[in-house]
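Predict structure. Chain length: 219.
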Amino acid sequence: MITVHHLNNSRSQRVLWLLEELGLPYEVKRYERLKSLQAPPELKAVHPLGKSPILTEGDLTIAETGAIVAYVLETHARGRLLPEPGSPAYWDYQHFLHYAEGSAMPPLFLRLVLSQIPKRAPFFARPILSAAMAKVDSVLIEPETQRHMDHWEAALSKGGWFAGGEFTAADVMMSFPVEAGASRLDYSHRPALKDFLARIHARPAYKAALAKGGPYAYA
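Prediction complete.
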């Protein structure tokens, strides 16, 4: 039996969604974030990094969302949620499978970190730090996030999904940066991104995963 070690409000929500899309049986072991928003120490007993998601099945333990998605697809999916190997859509799928965490998430995470610095500083230092972090964001992070949003919008505009005209696991992987971006970036002139979010939110498997894992609540 597959067990997902699931941290609330985290990337592991995508693993639950993938398993629901495939109709696979699984168990959820829940962990709650500390007040610091960090994962609890109990996760280190499952994997040395102490991060979520972690998937266990029998004697196998796998960490990192991309690796978990690849494992599930290779061992349980029977070709579902994958484009035809070797096709252009397949290589788009491979791109977005790895891009989601490797390139898309770092600037979004950095923007979150910068926003938290003034909030955690002494009261008298907050105005100065807020101004400094806003400057860093506008000069370094904002242009980068706009470049990524252009990439997302262009990919979705071609076929409706990130790897062409069919829903694939690439869309599951990309859901986290797109949803994180929706809470921090301006999608008002990004119709393909807004449509993507509406369509994934309407999927029964997405709703079932939220019911088991809990909703996102981005900072």
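Summary: The mean pLDDT is 89.
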